[in-house]
């Protein structure tokens, strides 16, 4: 279990991510409760550190995966474009590549 000071820090971190502090204390131990993503957590007996960590890790993971997928698709489309003779299909590929590229640029930079 983490120290009470750390727990309050984690509760504040969750609030900054959109969690709401509840007026009602925990029925088990009277601890402060927060509602986060539709679930109620107690700042005393629930492990807030894993909740805060999980959200951060999964966001980074998604961004990293998305970047990889987009780069692969962009590369595939570029290869197809190089071999494509049909004007309409070239146009389709270019607009597809533009979308991949725009999305790539919107991803958070490391
Ligand atoms: Zn509790």
**Ends apart, CA distance between termini:** 32 Å
Mean pLDDT: 88
The total beta strand count reads 3
Query: How much strand content do the residues show?
Result: 5-15%
State the share of residues found in helices, binned by percent.
55-70%
**What are the secondary-structure elements, in order, as H or E?**
HEEEHH
Low-pLDDT stretches are none
Coarse structural class: mainly alpha
Radius of gyration: 23 Å
Biggest sheet: strands side by side, in what order?
1-2-3
Tell me, briefly, the overall form: rod-shaped
Strand count, sense and barrel status of the largest sheet are: 3 strands, antiparallel
Characterise the protein shown here.
By secondary structure, the chain is mostly helical. It has two domains: 4-46, no CATH class; 58-106. The protein is 63% helix and 9% strand. It has helices at 4-16, 48-83, 87-106, and strands at 20-21, 33-36, 39-42. The chain has a three-stranded antiparallel beta sheet with strand order 1-2-3, covered by helices on one side. A hairpin with a 2-residue loop joins strand 2 and strand 3. Helix 1 (4-16) runs parallel beside helix 2 and helix 2 packs antiparallel against helix 3. Bound molecules: zinc ion.
